[in-house]
Amino acid sequence: MAFDVQSFQEDVIDASHNGPVVVDFWAPWCGPCRVLGPVIEKLAHQQSDTWTLVKVNSDEHQAEAMRFGVRGIPAVKMVFKGEVIDEFTGALPEPAIRQWLEKALPGETKEWMKQVDSLLEAGSTAEALPLLEQVLELEPTNPAAAGHLSSLIALEDPDRAGALADIAMTGEPRFVQIAEAVRTLTQHLKMIPPDGPGKALYVQAAEQLGQGDAERAVVTLIEVLKSDRYYGDDAARKLGVAIFTLLGPFHPVSQTHRRTFDMWLY
């Protein structure tokens, strides 16, 4: 067959340094393998410019199957640069395989997003910003990039941050949480403060936040909580929680003021 392995080293390991290789471990006696085989071969023909399929008879290549941790077949593993980067077991239907391929296939934007995560963990937000812009230029609906960027520009460009938050809402839970925090922040920055004992301080906190001074804003919100705990339908609590969510638990402002803020909530 056209996809049968000839040399595992050449067809899989060496070839994976030129592009992703999808390895289908199968056996002639395996019923699910016979179901999966034609489907994944069809996709390999359709997407031949993106990835390569190699079929490996696990009975004939037991050493390779053991090396790759095959414990049940069919076992499909994506190999890139000599390493397994994703996998699944069993005869998935075609739509599920397509979804798996879309998620698993390496790409330039995925590499950029890995760099973004590393930069943000190191606190290098200035270096992460251009990478996020590049990702969104190529993939305008990328929820991870939208979530990260919305959190970074929420204060300086709340309108764009709000639009990005809508995209982030389609992503995984952590980006949904970021999106909700951005929405809360942008809504409260635009809110017409209602009358009440806490109004003057709340207006001051919003101004400080609009100037990019998150720490002073948090300190002022704590004063709002002290003087008028439920001012503006709990506005100080909602805005403060949004700020801490966007800053993250390890930000100096969170480390310094979160405990005091929480204390005045109860």
Rough shape? elongated
Q: Superfamily at the CATH H level of the largest domain?
A: Glutaredoxin
CATH architecture tag of the largest domain:
3-Layer(aba) Sandwich
* Low-pLDDT sequence parts: none
Percent helix range: 55-70%
Written as H for each helix and E for each strand, in order along the chain, the element string is HEHEHEEHHHHHHHHHH
CATH class of the largest domain: Alpha Beta
Side-by-side strand order of the widest sheet: 2-1-3-4
Amino-to-carboxy terminus distance = 70 Å
What number of domains? Answer: 3
- Rounded radius of gyration (Å): 26 Å
Give the arrangement of secondary structure elements.
Elements: H1 8-14, E1 21-26, H2 31-46, E2 52-57, H3 62-67, E3 75-80, E4 83-89, H4 94-104, H5 108-121, H6 125-138, H7 143-153, H8 158-168, H9 173-190, H10 199-210, H11 214-227, H12 231-247, H13 252-263
Can you offer a commentary on this structure?
The protein has 266 residues and is α+β, with helices and mostly antiparallel strands. The protein folds into 3 domains: 8-104, Glutaredoxin, CATH 3.40.30; 108-186, Serine Threonine Protein Phosphatase 5, Tetratricopeptide repeat (Alpha Horseshoe); 191-263, Serine Threonine Protein Phosphatase 5, Tetratricopeptide repeat (Alpha Horseshoe). The chain is 61% helix and 9% strand. The protein has helices spanning 8-14, 31-46, 62-67, 94-104, 108-121, 125-138, 143-153, 158-168, 173-190, 199-210, 214-227, 231-247, 252-263; strands at residues 21-26, 52-57, 75-80, 83-89. It has a 4-stranded mixed sheet, with helices on both faces. A hairpin with a 2-residue loop joins β3 and β4 (83-89). α6 packs across α7. The N and C termini lie far apart (70 Å).
